[in-house]
Amino acid sequence: MGGRGRASIDCERVFTRIDHIGVAVEQLEASLSSTATTSSCGWPTREVVSEQGVEAVLLDVGENHVELLAPLGSDTPVGRFLEKKGPGCTTSPTR
Q1: N or C: where does the chain have the smaller number of CB atoms within 10 Å of the terminal CB?
Q2: pTM value?
Q3: What fold, for 16-91?
């Protein structure tokens, strides 16, 4: 156990790399125009994921990805995130 009752984690054994970082945005078009033109993110993959209530754009950044997430409505998880915290990082799934 490492400090204050928490188990210590050997991050190198648990996580081999970050797969993608999810970023909540209010509008994809505005975010894409500022992101894609200022970096070499490759051609974006875009899809609506109805079951999660988002329109997502996946940008390649080296071996990893940045996923821009725009809510399909204010009653979705990303919509509530934006209302509570504003635009920003939501997830960092690892492999």
Answers
A1: N
A2: 0.70
A3: 2,3-Dihydroxybiphenyl 1,2-Dioxygenase; domain 1 (3.10.180)
